[in-house]
Structures are given as structure tokens and as C-alpha cells.
Amino acid sequence: MRNNSDNHYASLLDVHESIDTTQPKKRWKRLAAFIGPAYLVSVGYMDPGNWATDLQGGSKFGYKLIWVLLMSNLMALLLQSLAARLGIVRRRDLAQANREAYPKSINLILYVLAEIAIAATDLAEVLGMAIGLHLLTGIPILWGVLITVLDTFLLLILQRLGMRKMEAFIVMLIAIIGISFLIEIIFAQPNFHEIARGFVPTIPNSEALYISIGIIGATVMPHNLYLHSALVQTRKITRDEPSIRRAIRFNIFDSAIALNLAFFVNAAILILAAAVFFKTGRTDVAEIKEAHKMLEPMLGTSLAPILFAVALIAAGQSSTVTGTLAGQIVMEGYLRLRINPWLRRVITRLLAIIPAVIVILIYGENELDDLLVFSQVILSIQLGFAIIPLIHFVSDKEKMGVFVIPLYVKILAWLVTFVLLALNLKMVFEQSIEYLQSSHNNVSNFFVIAGLVVLVSLLATVLLFPFIRRRMEKPITIHAQNTGFKKIDVPAFKRIAVALDFGAHDSKILSFAIAQGNPNTTFILIHVVESVSAQMLGEGSADYESLTDQEQLDLYVAQIKENGFNAIAQLGFERRTKEIVRIVKEQSADLLVMGAHGHTGFKDWLYGETINNVRHELKIPVLLINV
């Protein structure tokens, strides 16, 4: 966990500017250096949630809703390019920009809504993975849901390998999905004339509207806007106008390729359902499991259902990586809170697993596809809370400078936003009115009406606030002039605590500690005994390790005094973190010096946790020495 100033709290700090785009001289090599972020974003546009909405749309209405896929893909391309522009120009992700622009109360609500959207996304991925495993191996879906906990560590492995290898892994999964559906389409032999007619806009009935909104929610996903604005910052670029313009142009190119691949996958699913089920009168086939079962007899090959299941697993696995990254971005951006990636992953996955398990236990496996569609509708409802601030930010000439979006792009972006909001609000109000007319429970009716009022009020606030109060912080321009320091107060430490482990680096730690003091400083040398006796008896421990550790600490004190400094020894017992904090507080130290061990794996987790826990328990400065 870490707290930094607004200007230095980089998005995805571990991989921030980790890929240098300034070195390649040839144009194609420079373009290749930018390729990648949009592919991580694109997997969110072909996750298992899309499958449910695309299957229902194709089986119930044939090719008539293909135009919805095309429209949502064009919307996605526009919005993702705006998110990339925000990250490239301002070096802020969407969550960080929101934190700067809106009041704390609004930001808290936006954070909660973003977390709900990510949980809904992860729910779709959990269900897709579980259904895919069930279709491929026959294991119960409930077991498959529980098995998805294991992939929580996949992201950690990929992050250790680096950003480029993570992007390559995602591209490989996208290729598996694309090839699988290309073969499926060849088997299905759809009518291409009817497919062409499907690009003419039409909404047959209210059920088609519900599925269309679900398709839009599954395609234009709010967490992807947070994700893209952060991922583009993994590229290091020169901060001059030509370089920034080139980065924007290359990222639009990257987005166009990646999102068109996602459109092909979504269209292939809908076309497959239309060609195989709608055309044979099986408009009731709206579930992934049922579609899988019907593919073999209708297409006449056993390969079709296998490819279907493999593609489903690949879609779920690829999306689970990007969902975790989005969760990390949202938490760090809104709350300035950074936690261990494995813990963040476990929390995100549990928030998805719990509702899935509850639905399976109460209603059985037959309701899972409806749950998938519902998760996508939730995403669609939350789109406005991500899109509206994004358009405000990239339209702000004061912040964006010469990179502010043109007027025609601004008009188009607001038009897309109002279309999405109109569709979403229409669906929400129709569903609410239908519920209120059939319900006789005054309490639940009150909460439904109150929820509608809060939804509309919050949308209005997010929309109007930037107009009312354009800036809540000092202007940030692309080439801002440095104002320098007003005044620098150099602290004089009177009591410096030094945590030692009696290793080879103690002399280095002590040297840095002494450098922070002066002749009047008292150095408090701390060592924690962690023997079995110390854990059981605490300060009453008198075993060999406790006695020798006290002697070693006294020797250090004597050597420091010989060099003309004041020093005292303080031995702690049992728990390292607890004892260091206790001694520092009891001795009224005003600075703590510790060694930061360069371990990996378990030791990195162990020592890293010790340092973090100590820092967050103390209110004094902590100086970490890399050893």
C-alpha cells in the first residue's frame, strides 16, 4: 500500500513507461512498440458475457441485430481512442482524472460503481470459464466455478514476465478464439445476403431492445475505459508535440485492428446462432450449454462443440487478466490505495464467485445464461458514469492544450453518450414500471423509486458539475513552467531508530542512519528475537539466541559510542512488525531506518509485508535502505 502525491502517483506503477518507444528509428518498428494495449482491452469485448447476449440475439432474431454489434463496435472505437488520448496526453488514467476533478463524495460513488462493473465483468468470466470446463470435461459447473479461484495467480506470473509477454499471451488467446469461430462459420455456411440485410437498423420488439442493450453493455464496457487510459502509459514517449501526436495516431491504429478482431468474434457468435438455430426454428436455444449440445447434430461434426468449448475457456481466461488490472487501476486511482496483486485478485474473484455459487445452489444451472445477460445489462447501465467524465476531460482545452479533441469528435462523442443513456434509461424505467405495476410491497416499491431518483440525480451531477466548476485543482498544462520551492525546512532528527537483523548489511544500514543524525542525536538500535522461546516467553526468554543477540546489539552500541555518537540497545521478542512499532513508539523516535531486502518469491512477500505493516503503523518518516 502506498500514498504518493498526485503528480507522482503513476498508473500501474510496476510497468509504467516500461516499454521504450523512443529508440526505434524505423517507422514500422516504432509502430510495433505501440502495438499491444488495445489487444488487452479488446478481450473485454469478446468475453463470455458477450456470448450469452450474442447467442440470444442470433437464435431469437436471426441476423437482425448484427447492426447493433457494428454500432457498438464503432462506439467502442471512438471511446477507447478518447481513453487512450487521456492517458497519453495527461499521463492520468480515468480514475486519477476523476479524483482530481470531482468532490470526494462523488468520487466515492464513482469508485463503488466502477467496482460493481468490474465484479459484473468478472462474474461473466467466472461463469464462462466454468461452463467451458463443464462442456469440455463434464465436471459440474459448481466445481468449475470454484476451480476458477486457481487462475487468480495467472496474472502474477504474467506480470513477473513483463508487459510484452503478457500482451503476447493475450494475443495468443485471441488467436485461439478467432480461429475456432472461423472454422465454426465454415461449418455453418450462413447466408451472406441475409447477413448484409442485418446491418439495416431495426428493433423488432421490447425483448430485442433488452438484448440489444445487453450487447452494447457487453461490448462498450466501462472498465475498459479505465484500463486503456492506464495501459497506454506503459509506453515511454518523448514529451514533445510531434511525439505525442504520433503516439495518439499509433494507438488509434492499434485500437482499430484489435477492436475489429473483437467485432469479428462477436459477429461470428451471432451469425453461428442465427445460421444454426434461428434458421431451423430453434429460437428457444438461448443458453451456451444448449448451443454447445446442438452444434454437433446440426453441423454434422464432433469438432464443432470442442472448438466452441475451447474458445469459451480462452475468452474467460483472457478476460480475467484484464479485469484484475482494471480493478487495480480503479482502486489506486480513486483511493490512492495499492495492495498486493494476489490479494486484489482474490477479492475480485470472490466478489464474482459468491453470487454465481448462490444462483447455482438456489436456482440450479439453468439460470446461468440469464445471469450472464443480466451482468452485461448492469455494465451498460454504468457506462454513463465512465463516458461522461472521459468526454469532459479530453474536451478541456486548459488541460489538454493543443491535443484537445476537435469539435466534430466532441459532438459525435456526446451523441454516442446520449444515445447510450437514452437506451439505458428507457430499459431501466420500463423494467421498473413493470415491477411497480405487479408489486404490492410498499417497501420494495419505495426502494425502486428511490433508486431511480438517485440514478438520474447522479448522472445529472456527473454531467453538469464540470460545467459549473471547471477546475478543482491548479491547472496542469502540457508545458507548465516550474515554480520551484517556496521554502525548504531541513529536519533535525533527535532520536533515530534503526532496525537490524544482524546480517551482512548492518554496517550499510547504520552508515545511512548516522548520516541522518548529528552529534546530539540518539540512535536506538532494534533487533527482534524470533526463537521458539521468545515466541512463548517474550521478554522472559533467556535462551542462547536471546543472550547472544543482546550481546551483539550491545557491541554495536559500543562501536557507535566510540565514534562519538549516543546509542542505546532495544531487544524485541516474538513478532517482528509488532515489536519494531512498539519500540519506536515507546522510545519516541522521529525517524526509522530499515533495510529493504532484494529477495524474490516468498521472501519478497515476507519482508515486503513487514516493511509495509511497519510504515502504516507509524506516523514518522521511514527510510528504506536497499541492501
Characterise this structure.
By secondary structure, this protein is mainly α. The protein is built from 26 helices and seven strands. Strands 5-4-3-6-7 form a five-stranded parallel beta sheet, with helices on both faces. It has a two-stranded parallel sheet with strand order 1-2. Strand 3, helix 22 and strand 4 form a beta-alpha-beta unit. Helix 12 runs parallel beside helix 18. The chain is elongated, with a radius of gyration of 29 Å. The two termini are 21 Å apart. The N terminus is likely disordered.
SSE layout and pairings?
Blueprint: E1 19-20, H1 27-34, H2 37-42, H3 48-61, H4 66-90, H5 94-101, H6 104-137, H7 141-147, H8 154-161, H9 163-188, H10 192-197, H11 206-219, H12 222-231, E2 235-236, H13 241-276, H14 288-299, H15 303-335, H16 341-363, H17 368-382, H18 384-394, H19 397-400, H20 407-438, H21 442-468, E3 495-499, H22 506-515, E4 522-529, H23 532-537, H24 544-562, E5 566-573, H25 576-586, E6 591-596, H26 601-617, E7 622-626
Parallel strand pairs: 1-2, 3-4, 3-6, 4-5, 6-7
